[in-house]
């Protein structure tokens, strides 16, 4: 009697239990972005309410509607393009230089014990010290032109990338190196076909970190020594009490930051699919 | 010494590991002596930790010889060479290369990946039963498939001397059985495979008897030779060989030799007395 009651219950329960994880995952997938959007909306709405009701002075605090208006205006007038292009090109150049320099350099240092011992403390220090502290010095050395700003971006982006590449090159699987040696691969082949792909996940993690720092470097440089770029716009508009325009520029910077992050995450997914364990 | 039938000569060989941290030397093979004839399939069995892997890595040229002779074709082995390849205990495939690219690795490393090389790789894919899996990445392969890629990668460079380090030990009994049959099949079928010598390390005595022409029994570590047992079973060998009385007899004999090396306590004593010979 008990047995006959139990078995249909179990039979019914099994498909439901099996379906639940799938539904759960789909639910999470839509829930998280929705919740995120709600969070943003709540903050923007309270900001708007505070500004509209005069709790805060919109002259100082701007307001979402004002900033949005300024953003639309800047696109309509085309004023946004020149600083946007300037910031993007400096970040791009800085990243290209950092990547081209850090990958071979990092592989070399990571694969050579003497070079590693020689450079490790130096690189650690350069990585740990807040890089913006070198800004006055860099301005002194390189001036305040676009070149100088690229130097600052490289300065910001190079070390996190380098540290990651070195860590990756040092963590190569011993067995992979043995395979390489047994088949008499040349040093160059080992570097290119074993060390590089094995390090790729580290490289991309480094790139993600470096892109964030590169953007910060570029904006800080523009704030400090600006004659162009989004950072300069923020600085200029704020000192002119045009907080709406400043907020609009900040919004553009935020969008760039998010897009860059997602871009690198996408690259990671595409290029290191083989390292996923799922 | 220049007898062409003596492909590989091991004479009073001592090898071991230097520990970088403590600066001590741990002996793995002590006075090992035997030789291997051309075209022979030789299996090495011995207690765990006796130095089989160490011997094979020395044979592959990955670690230096401390003293004694380790000669291939009359020349002392001093490093890796194109005419030897090693099937690793762990498959050690490159996860960023698909099946074909993994098998091609050795040829590519040696600048031999031409049309002929590619044809050979395609042939090997078929031979090890991986047709249709060419574009799969290692994470999509089962353990047995990975080992077959590992084997094909070693065969691809068409080595003179094939070294295999417990290639099937990580597999379940059934897959293992299949792989053994496959290896004999590949060994017997691979046209380029005739005229090659193989050294196969294993824990599994029946496996050794099934595959090999001669079984070399090593002592507990540090390894020296206990006995070389000839396996006079006819080739080609199919799975039915394993049920023959001759097979049982040879297996039992080798097993008794191995067991006599495995007396409890013996291994640790040996290791203690030999573990620390400082330079
Ligand atoms: N990299 C190493 N450094 C120092 N000692 C090592 C190293 N590798 C192995 N040894 C030691 O050398 C001895 C022989 O090890 P080896 O791996 O050759 O044994 P094995 O016969 O292959 O054992 P198993 O059958 O369990 O694989 C062991 O005592 C081991 O502790
Ligand atoms: Mg071993």
UniProtKB/TrEMBL annotation, chain A:
<keyword id="KW-0813">Transport</keyword>
<feature type="transmembrane region" description="Helical">
    <location>
        <begin position="214"/>
        <end position="234"/>
    </location>
</feature>
<comment type="similarity">
    <text>Belongs to the binding-protein-dependent transport system permease family.</text>
</comment>
<protein>
    <submittedName>
        <fullName>ABC transporter permease</fullName>
    </submittedName>
</protein>
<keyword id="KW-0472">Membrane</keyword>
<dbReference type="Pfam" id="PF00528">
    <property type="entry name" value="BPD_transp_1"/>
</dbReference>
<keyword id="KW-1003">Cell membrane</keyword>
<feature type="transmembrane region" description="Helical">
    <location>
        <begin position="30"/>
        <end position="49"/>
    </location>
</feature>
<feature type="domain" description="ABC transmembrane type-1">
    <location>
        <begin position="84"/>
        <end position="265"/>
    </location>
</feature>
<keyword id="KW-0812">Transmembrane</keyword>
<feature type="transmembrane region" description="Helical">
    <location>
        <begin position="246"/>
        <end position="267"/>
    </location>
</feature>
<dbReference type="InterPro" id="IPR035906">
    <property type="entry name" value="MetI-like_sf"/>
</dbReference>
<keyword id="KW-1133">Transmembrane helix</keyword>
<dbReference type="InterPro" id="IPR000515">
    <property type="entry name" value="MetI-like"/>
</dbReference>
<feature type="transmembrane region" description="Helical">
    <location>
        <begin position="150"/>
        <end position="169"/>
    </location>
</feature>
<feature type="transmembrane region" description="Helical">
    <location>
        <begin position="90"/>
        <end position="110"/>
    </location>
</feature>
<feature type="transmembrane region" description="Helical">
    <location>
        <begin position="122"/>
        <end position="144"/>
    </location>
</feature>
<feature type="region of interest" description="Disordered">
    <location>
        <begin position="1"/>
        <end position="20"/>
    </location>
</feature>
TrEMBL record, chain B:
<protein>
    <submittedName>
        <fullName>ABC transporter ATP-binding protein</fullName>
    </submittedName>
</protein>
<dbReference type="InterPro" id="IPR027417">
    <property type="entry name" value="P-loop_NTPase"/>
</dbReference>
<dbReference type="GO" id="GO:0005524">
    <property type="term" value="F:ATP binding"/>
</dbReference>
<feature type="domain" description="ABC transporter">
    <location>
        <begin position="13"/>
        <end position="245"/>
    </location>
</feature>
<keyword id="KW-0547">Nucleotide-binding</keyword>
<dbReference type="InterPro" id="IPR003439">
    <property type="entry name" value="ABC_transporter-like_ATP-bd"/>
</dbReference>
<keyword id="KW-0813">Transport</keyword>
<dbReference type="InterPro" id="IPR017871">
    <property type="entry name" value="ABC_transporter-like_CS"/>
</dbReference>
<dbReference type="InterPro" id="IPR003593">
    <property type="entry name" value="AAA+_ATPase"/>
</dbReference>
<dbReference type="InterPro" id="IPR050166">
    <property type="entry name" value="ABC_transporter_ATP-bind"/>
</dbReference>
<dbReference type="Pfam" id="PF00005">
    <property type="entry name" value="ABC_tran"/>
</dbReference>
<keyword id="KW-0067">ATP-binding</keyword>
């Amino acid at each position: 009697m008990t047995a006959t009651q139990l078995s249909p219950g179990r039979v019914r329960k099994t498909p439901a239990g099996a379906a639940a994880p799938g539904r759960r995952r789909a639910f999470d997938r839509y829930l998280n972005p929705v919740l995120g959007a709600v969070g943003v909306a709540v903050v923007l709405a309270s900001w708007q309410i505070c500004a509209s009701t005069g709790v805060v002075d919109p002259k100082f605090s701007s307001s979402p509607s004002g900033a949005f208006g300024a953003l639309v205006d800047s696109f309509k007038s085309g004023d946004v393009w020149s600083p946007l292009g300037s910031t993007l090109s400096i970040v791009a150049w800085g990243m290209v230089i950092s990547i081209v320099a850090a990958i071979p350099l990092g592989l070399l240092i990571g694969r050579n014990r003497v070079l590693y011992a020689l450079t490790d403390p130096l690189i650690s220090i350069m990585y740990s010290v807040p890089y913006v502290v070198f800004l006055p010095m860099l301005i002194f050395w390189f001036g305040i032109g676009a070149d100088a700003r690229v130097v600052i971006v490289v300065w910001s982006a190079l070390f996190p990338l380098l540290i990651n590449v070195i860590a990756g090159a040092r963590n190569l699987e011993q067995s992979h190196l043995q395979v390489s040696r047994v088949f008499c691969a040349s040093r160059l082949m080992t570097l290119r076909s074993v060390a590089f792909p094995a390090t790729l996940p580290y490289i991309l993690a480094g790139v993600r970190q470096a892109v964030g720092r590169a953007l910060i470097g570029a904006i800080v440089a523009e704030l400090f020594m600006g004659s162009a770029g989004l950072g300069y716009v923020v600085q200029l508009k704020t000192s002119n009490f045009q907080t709406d325009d400043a907020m609009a520029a900040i919004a553009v910077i935020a969008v760039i930051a998010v897009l860059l992050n997602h871009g690198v995450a996408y690259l990671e997914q595409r290029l290191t699919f083989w390292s996923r364990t799922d | 010494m220049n007898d062409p039938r003596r492909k590989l000569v091991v004479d009073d060989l001592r090898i071991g590991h230097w520990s970088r941290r403590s600066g001590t030397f741990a002996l793995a093979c002590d006075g090992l002596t035997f030789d291997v004839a051309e075209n022979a399939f030789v299996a090495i069995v011995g207690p765990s930790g006796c130095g089989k892997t160490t011997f094979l890595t020395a044979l592959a040229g990955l670690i230096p010889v401390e003293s004694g002779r380790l000669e291939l074709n009359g020349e002392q082995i001093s490093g890796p060479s194109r005419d030897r390849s090693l099937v690793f205990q762990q498959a050690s495939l490159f996860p960023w290369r698909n099946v074909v690219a993994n098998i091609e690795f050795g040829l590519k490393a040696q600048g031999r990946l031409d049309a002929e090389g590619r044809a050979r790789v395609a042939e090997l894919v078929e031979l090890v039963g991986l047709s249709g899996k060419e574009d799969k990445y290692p994470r999509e392969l089962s353990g047995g498939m990975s080992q077959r890629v590992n084997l094909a990668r070693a065969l691809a460079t068409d080595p003179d001397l094939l070294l295999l380090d417990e290639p099937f030990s990580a597999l379940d009994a059934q897959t293992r059985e299949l792989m053994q049959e496959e290896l004999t099949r590949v060994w017997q079928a691979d046209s380029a495979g005739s005229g090659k010598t193989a050294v196969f390390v294993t824990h599994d005595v029946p496996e050794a008897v099934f595959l090999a022409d001669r079984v070399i029994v090593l002592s507990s570590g540090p390894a020296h030779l206990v006995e070389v047992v000839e396996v006079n079973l006819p080739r080609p060998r199919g799975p039915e060989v394993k049920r023959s009385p001759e097979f049982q007899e040879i297996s039992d004999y080798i097993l008794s030799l191995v067991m006599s090396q495995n007396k409890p306590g013996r291994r640790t004593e040996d290791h203690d007395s030999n573990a620390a010979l400082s330079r």
